[in-house]
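[worker-b] picked up task from shared queue
[worker-b] task type: protein-ligand structure
[worker-b] ligand name resolved to adenosine-5'-triphosphate; SMILES cross-checked against name lookup, match
[worker-b] sequence length check passed
[worker-b] input payload:
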Amino acid sequence: MEKAHRDEKDKQQVKIPSNESPELYDIGQDIGIAVNSANIEELQKPRLPDSEYRTLVRSLNKKQKDFFYYVLHWCKTKQEPMYTFLTGGAGVGKSQVLKALYNALLKYYSSQPGSDPHDTHILLMAPTGKAAYGIKGSTIHSALLIPASQGFHYKALTSDKLNSLRVKFRNLKIIFIDEISMVGNGMFTYIDKRLQQIMSSNNIFGGVSIIAVGDLFQLKPVFDGWIFNDLTHDYGPLASN
Ligand SMILES: Nc1ncnc2c1ncn2[C@@H]1O[C@H](COP(=O)(O)OP(=O)(O)OP(=O)(O)O)[C@@H](O)[C@H]1O
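[worker-b] inference finished, payload out:
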């Protein structure tokens, strides 16, 4: 009887609200355990209901709206990838903009002729499980199958993993990387190489747009250099737009 009571109490303590997608929280990244496989089915998140989305966009202030429409317009009108940094101090509303943009782009890409609902057009990633959970996204390691705790020497994907990511990302257009201050230059270079491999392209980041979100005055990378230090790659084109 007492044991049953204890079990029930334990269950209550680990209970996660049903709308929070607990499977997205990858504790391995926070405690340093390697990720072996990505749950690539989980990469596409459901869209907000239309009324909630409209309320969210209406709530954006002038600066937030400027950025929101700038990215949206680019994605709708230009063929070339965009590389942009959304920054600002803690609590200025970066996550709100990210959420609004994610939903706007999801709506746009899924309404394109021939769009397949299984395609991942947009990826939301963050360097740690906690940060990924905050944006209901994935960790960089799990989304791109990057082995943890093995340094940044590039390890090419085996053909079976590569094939499954190629299928999933064949129409990948844009990646949001939150908490960019915690992404070091080693990891940034790794992301670039991984995307080139997945997209079979020699273009930077495999030709996928990158929106980095964060505040470089916040947390710095662990076991890696600042993103702007000692880059072994020439990321000059990233500064052009
Ligand atoms: N335009 C806005 N109008 C009203 N409230 C807003 C607006 N933008 C953001 N907020 C609110 O401000 C708070 C902080 O916003 P948010 O989490 O998006 O900031 P942030 O820049 O991502 O912060 P951090 O860098 O700490 O992650 C939230 O409660 C959010 O709902």
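[worker-b] attaching auto-annotations
[worker-b] The chain has nine helices and five strands.
[worker-b] releasing lock
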